[in-house]
Amino acid sequence: MTTRILDGESVRSPIRPFVIQDFHAFVGGLISRPGMEEILRQGKAIQDRYNLRDITDGSAVADMQGPDGKPFADAAEGELRLLWALSVDWFNPYLNKIAGLSISTGSMAMSCLYLPPSMRYKTDNLYLAGIIPGPKEPKLERTNHFLCPLVDQLLVSWERGIWYNRTYDYPRGRRVRSALALVITDLPGSRKVGRLASHSAGCFCSQCHLKKQSINNIDMTTWKMKTAEEILEAAVRWRDADTQEERKCIFKEFGIRWSELNRLPYWDPVRCIVIDGMHNIFLGVTQFHSRKVIGMDVPIGDREDAGNARKIKENDLISLRRLLLKDPEPRLLLRFNKVTLGHMCGELGFRLPRSVHEMKKSVLADVLTRRTGYTQTHATIAVWIRPSASATDRAPLTSTPDTAELAPQTLIGEAYTAECAAEHAATAKLADRQDEVDSLSIRAFRKRDLKHMQADIAETSRPIYSVGPPANMGTKGQGKLKADHWKAAIEFELPVSLMKHWHGERLDNLSDESKHRHDLAHCTMRLACAVHQATSYRTTENHRTRYTIHMHAYLSDILELKPGLTLVPNHHNALHLGDFLMRFGPVHGWWMFPFERLIGVLQQVNTNYKQGQFEKTMLESFCTAANVKAFLKRDDCPKVLKDCAPIVQSCFGGDQRGTLMTDIRTLGEQILDGPSPDTGATVDWTSVRRLEREFYDVLAARSAELNILVPGWRLTRHCLLHGHLTICGT
Questions:
Q1: 100 lies in a domain?
Q2: Residues 348 and 362 placed together within one structural domain of the fold
Q3: Strand partners, 164
C-alpha cells in the first residue's frame, strides 16, 4: 500500500490493484439458469472407467474423495457438488497496438468439469477469477498473493459448503460444494502456481526426481517418481524454515516452495498439476522436431554461396591463423567477420550444421577456440600467399590451395587438422551453445524440400473449420506459428510430405545422405503416431501404452540420428504425458486451447491501456458480456431483448475454426456463439424453438437407435431452424 495526502487527509491506495470476481456469486448465477442443475447432475455420471471419453471418467476425478470420506460425486440428497479446473496464463494485453510496448498480464480462470464439453468453455460458463496486473510476471512467492483470495473461497466451499436460498430447481434452497481438481497451464506457469523449481533448474521435473544432467536418460524404469506426501512435507518445511539459507537447502534438494494451493486439504501437487498437451506436444516437441531435428527453419541451399569469397580478406586469414596458435579467448576472434571465421572452420575440418550467415559470430569463435594445448610442435601456420600473383589473379579462397602453391614460410600440418577434427567429433557439441549448434550430423532439410512441402500444403484440401499450416511455412514470412498450425502440420502435412519425398524403397541403393533422410522421415512418422494416440477423443489403457511406445521410440531415434543432441524438458515431460491420459481422460478435457481462446477474447476488450486500470475494465467487460449472453438464453427474457440477440452475438462472435471449435462440434451440440461455421452468417436467436414432446420422443429414440449420442447425455429439446445445411468434411 502507498500513502498520499489528498485534501489534507492521508489516503492509502494499493500499489498494484487486483480485482477478483466473487466465486460464490458466480456459482449462484450459474445454477439459477433453467436446466443447468440437471445438466450438472448428469455430468457427474461416470460413463466407462476403461473407455474414457471425458475428464470426468479419469481416475483422478472419479476417485476424488469428499470431506465426508466418500466419493466426491456422491453428495447427500439436495446437495450439489462441482469440480473445477484452474488455468493461469500470462499474455501481452497490448498486442501490436502500441509499438514497442510489451507487458505481461495474467488471467486466472476456471471451468466446471461437470458441464459437457459443448458448454464447458463458452464464455458465459467460464469463471474469470481476475486479471493479474503487470508489467511483469510475479516472481517467487508473489504468485501466492493472487491465489490467496481464490483459495480462501474454495476452502469455505469445501469445508462447509455455500447455502443458496433459492435456485431454479430448488426454490427452498440447496447447498453447493466445490473443489479444485487440477491446474491447467503451460510449463513456466505450472512452476509459478505450484511453486516448483523452474524447468531449467536441476530438479526440472514435477513428476520424478531425474536431474537435469541426466535428461537424456529415457529409460523410464530408472526414474524415481515423486509422491504428494514428500512434496507437501518439503513445502511445509520450506514455509516454516527460520532462515533463507535453510530454505535454499530445501529448495535445492526437493525443488519446491510453499504454494497457497497446498492449503486445500485434498490437493496433490504431483498428480493435479497436469502437463499441458497443447504446449508440450505441439508448441514443444513438434516445433523442436521441425526446427532442430529436421532443420525446416534453416534449409541449406543446394550449393554454397560463391559471394562469400568476396568477403574474405587474405590478410585477415593470415592474422587469424597466427592468432589461433596462441590459444586465444573467443572474444579476441570477434573482430573478424563471420565469413572469415566460417572459412577457417572449413580449413580445420569442422563441419557446421548450417550456413555461416545463419550462425552467430560468437558461436563460430567458440568452434575455433574450444581446443586447448596446441603449440607450434603440433603444426605451423599456413600463410597462403602467392608472391607472384596480383590481387586480381588470386584464386578464390573458397577452397584450400594445393600445398605446392603455399609460401615456404609455414605450412598447416595434417596432424593439426586431424587432431582438431577428432577433438570436435568426440564431443559433438559446443559447450553451452546447444541452441545455436544443436548437432553436427547431416543437415537434411534443403530448399527444394521446403518448396515440396509448401506445394503439398497448397494442394491439401481441409474442412472449412480446420486450420492448416500457412502456405509459406518454413520462411520468415510465416510469422509466429500457433499450436493449431503445429497440430495440423504433424497430423498430416509434415509426415506425408517427408514420406513422399524422403522415403526410400531399397536402403542398400541409397547414399548416406538419402539414408539419413529416410530415417528422419520414419522418425517423423513415429512422432505423428504418438500424437495420434495422445489426441484421440477416447482413451484406453491401449492408447496410453501405444502412445508411450511411439514417443519412446521417437526419442530413441532422434538421439541416434542427432549425435550430441541434448533433450529438452518437453521431451522428458512427453514421456510422463501417458500417465495423465488415464488420470484425466482424453487430452481435449485438459489442454490449454480453451483458455488461450479466452485470452484472445480479453485482448479484444477496449481499454485505456493504463496499467492498474485496464485490468479492472477487462474483468468487468468480460463478466458483463457473459451475463448478457446468459440472460438472452432464458425463457423469461423479454422479446424486445431477444430481437437484439443477433446483434449482441455478432459483437462477441469469434473464429469458428481451430482445435477448440472442432472439439466442441465433435463432442457435443453445435456451439451457438458467433457466426455459423458453414455460412459465416450470424445465428438468428429468434429461430430457436422448443421441440414438441411427440417429435422429441421420436428423435430421441432414433438417435439412441443410431448410437450417435455420447452415453449418458440426453438430447436437448431446444433446436435451431435452418433453411439449408452444408456438410463440410465427414
A1: yes
A2: yes
A3: 174
Q: Are residues 71 and 26 in the same domain?
A: yes
C-alpha dihedral over 242, 245, 249, 255, to 10 degrees?
80
Question: For residue 611, is it within any domain?
Answer: yes
Tens of pLDDT along 550-593? 999 999 999 998 887 889 999 999 999 999 999 999 999 999 99
Task: List helix spans (H) across 91-227.
Answer: 117-120, 143-159, 187-194
- When pLDDT is averaged across residues 28-46 and rounded to a whole number, the result is 87
127-132/105-112 β-pairing: antiparallel
Percent of the chain with pLDDT over 70: 74
126 and 232 belong to one structural domain: no
The pLDDT value given to residue 425: 41
User: Cα(52)–Cα(230) distance, rounded to whole angstroms?
Assistant: 30
Residue 563 lies in a domain: yes
How many independent structural domains does the chain possess? 5
Mean pLDDT value of segment 196-200: 89
563: its cell numbers: 549425435
The answer to whether residues 42 and 166 belong to one domain is yes
Give pLDDT, residue 702: 77
Q: Which residue has the cell 530454505?
A: 247
Q: Provide mean pLDDT across the span 233-241.
A: 94
Q: Return the pLDDT at 704.
A: 74
- Whether 218 maps to a domain, the answer reads yes
The residue among 190, 197, 205, 14 whose CA lies nearest residue 90 is 190
Spatial separation of the C-alpha atoms in residues 332 and 334, rounded to whole Å: 6
Q: Which amino acid is at 646?
A: P
Q: Are 686 and 645 in contact (CB under 8 A)?
A: yes
Query: Which of these, 445, 157, 171, lies nearest to 300 by C-alpha position?
Result: 445
> Residue 542 above 90 pLDDT?
yes
250 and 334: one domain?
A: no
Is residue 455 located within the same domain as residue 559?
yes
Percent of the chain exceeding pLDDT 90 equals 38
Same-domain status, 401 and 541: no
Q: What does the pLDDT read at residue 713?
A: 57
Beta-sheet strands, E only, within 315-428: none
Mean pLDDT over the full length of the chain = 78
| 196-205, 234-243, 312-321: segment of lowest average pLDDT | 312-321
Q: Which domain holds residue 380?
A: 306-427
Cβ atoms within 10 Å, residue 571? 23
CA distances to 44, 294, 546, 574, 584 from 277, rounded to whole Å, are 24, 22, 16, 8, 12
Enclosing H/E stretch for 690: strand 688-690
Compute the CA torsion angle 626, 629, 631, 637 (nearest 10 deg): 160
The pTM assigned to this predicted structure is: 0.72
| Helix axes 187-194 and 569-584, enclosed angle (nearest 10) | 70
- One domain for residues 228 and 112: no
* Cell numbers representing residue 643 in the block: 430481437
